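In the current project phase, the collection of sequences with tokenised folds has grown. A sample record is quoted in full directly below:
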Amino acid sequence: MTWLLLLVFLIISYYFVIKAKSKSIEKSFSLLSLLMFMLMATPIWNERLFDYIIDLSLFLPFVFGLLGIIFGWFGIKEGTRASFILINILALLFYLIIFLMGTIGFQEP
């Protein structure tokens, strides 16, 4: 499963970012936005990396999400900008749900 998701990441980055006709700095911001999305989506594809990120800081995935939104905003100006911002917002909401379930939902009375 991990290899399949990483392969999809590479295909998306190749076709939608690297082959796009835009400035190289915009391509770099778009690739960083995709990277931040992949770091936000670590609970789906790699539990050990997710545990390592959570051990560093409980709020680090929120930072990844905000950076992904910012990098997506400065990325490629076509339809990919909106999609990169949208996937980072969805990943941020996904982590917010996980965070709230873990901190508030599993407390014993």
